[in-house]
Each structure stands twice: as C-alpha cells, then as structure tokens.
Specification:
The chain is mainly β and 288 residues long. It has 3 helices and 15 strands. The longest helix is centred in the C-terminal third of the chain and has 16 residues.
Length: 288
C-alpha cells in the first residue's frame, strides 16, 4: 500500500514523574520508506566565493576574502554592517544580505503580493542556478516578513509598515516533509520583488535509494517508548510530558544520510513552577 494512512489510538502518556493524562494520540505513518545518500559536494575555493559575492553583492570589494578555520568565507561591508556574505567552501552553503538602508524609518516599500513574491523567488533561484536538481522537492513551509511600527514626533504611535516578505522553504520526499537543520532555503523579498537576502543550505540526493523492509522498522508503540525515554533523559526524572502526536518524516541532520524518523510532538512540564510548559519534538529513527 503506497498511500499514507492515519492511525488514531487512545494512549496513556506517562512521564517519569507520573501520569499526565489520557488523550487521543494521532500518528501519521507511511509505507515505502527509503534511506537516501547525499551526493558529495565538490570542495570550493576562495575564487568561487569571490565570484558568488560579485554575483550577489555587485560592487562590494572582494580583495580581502579569506576562509576562517571552519572553512567559511565571511564578509561584512565597511559601508553597511547589514550587507553581509557567507560561503562555506565544504558544504557549499550560501548566505547573503543586501543593503537594507532605504527600507529603514517610515519608508513604505511597494511589496509584491504573495504569489508575485513566489514568482520572484523562483525566478531568482532559476536565473542564478540555485534551484534543486529536482525542483519538485522544494516546498514552501512558512510565509513571514518584517513589520515595523513608526513613531510620530517621538510620542505618538504611527502606522505599521510591512518592510519585506520572508519565504521559508524546506524539502519534501515522496509526500513526506524533511525536518532538521539541513534542506532549507530562506528568501527575503522586498519592493517590487527585489531579493534582499538568501540563505541556502541544500545538498543534492543520490538518485539511488534503499527501500526499508517492515522488519527493519520500529513499530509506533516501540518508537513512542523510545521517545518517552529520550525526553526523560533530556529533561530529568522530575519532568512530566505529554505526547500530542506523531508523524513520519525524513530527517536531515547534515550527515551523510537522509533517513525516515518518527517526529513526536510533546509538551514538557518542568518541576520549576516558574517555567511555563513548552513544546518539544522528539526524533526517533524508524530504522532499528
């Protein structure tokens, strides 16, 4: 069976400090899961960084670019500290911010519609050869932005101004989302579709993948027990927790492999009464 299925069960969720409650626990699972290898990223050099900086920041000087100990080339403009550039020579990660000065104060930029922002971002990625090899893997996961409040005569609150639109992208494989620090792109869109910044943390997947057999997988019940143990180790024996739901996703932790995991959504209650309950995601590999 290839279709995703929704499994609902009534579970008793017990933390190390005692029973939290009985609740409806929903878990999304999927058949036909795979383990993927990331393709090796060609190691680059400072000349590549200089070319990228010219491409994205134009007239900024590239004369003093040198990699740090972590093999990342970093630049901050002497004329504007908000104009920055980063390029990791090992992973190929790129991050830049263009000059934002004219957007400051009470300036109200003519921002595009959401659909126009999508088109501007896609065109920018395509023209700069930054799209994934398989563009269908790139999925929008959140739309945000920057909103500023102005002040009139230093006393009275002025109008609220939207300064830019932020598009957050992640990866999707076989209909399942990819979570974790990797497989991300963030693009800030300004006036008339201008691209103001980009963060690109993306590696290509090898077309060869290994399908996981049912016997290699933890069951939902087994994974839930492991999540409970993990939460107890993370927050201590006195902490209580409530498991709210689970979904099978893929997890990109910047390692060599992309593999499926159970992502358990939990609410954590610490014994310190001054600390409010907070959300937490426990990640348990599907593979035993």
């Amino acid at each position: 069976m290839n279709a995703k299925k929704l499994i609902s069960a009534i579970l008793l969720v017990i933390g190390n400090a005692g029973l939290i409650g009985t609740q409806a626990f929903a878990a999304t699972t999927s058949d036909n899961l795979f383990v993927y290898n990331f393709e090796e990223t060609p190691v680059q050099n400072v000349e590549n960084s200089k070319a990228l900086m010219r491409q994205f920041l134009g007239d900024e000087s590239v004369d003093r670019l040198n990699p740090a100990l972590d093999k990342t080339v970093r630049y901050v403009s002497p004329n504007d500290v908000n104009t920055t550039f980063e390029h990791n020579l090992v992973t190929g990660d790129i991050r830049f911010h263009r000059n934002f000065a004219r957007y400051m104060g009470d300036y109200k930029p003519e921002l595009p519609s959401t659909d126009e922002a999508f088109k501007a971002a896609e065109l920018f990625l395509e023209e700069n050869k930054l799209l994934p090899t398989n563009p269908s893997e790139l999925k929008i996961v959140h739309i945000g932005g920057l909103r500023a409040t102005t002040v009139i005569d230093g006393k009275q609150a002025g109008p609220v101004i939207d300064k830019l639109i932020t598009l957050n992208y992640s990866r999707e494989i076989g209909g399942l989302p990819v979570i974790g620090p990797g497989s991300k792109m963030i693009i800030d869109i300004g006036e008339k579709g201008e691209v103001l910044s980009l963060t690109r943390h993306w590696r290509e997947l090898s077309p060869k993948a290994r399908e996981i057999s049912p016997g290699e997988m933890y069951s939902l019940d087994e994974a839930q027990r492991l999540a409970s143990l993990q939460i107890g180790k993370e927050f201590g024996k006195e902490a209580k927790f409530e498991l709210l739901g689970s979904q099978i996703t893929y997890f990109d932790n910047n390692g060599r492999l992309l593999q499926p995991v159970y992502a358990f959504q939990a609410k954590i209650f610490l014994p310190d009464q001054q600390t409010q309950a907070f959300d937490y995601v426990s990640v348990i590999p599907v593979l035993k």
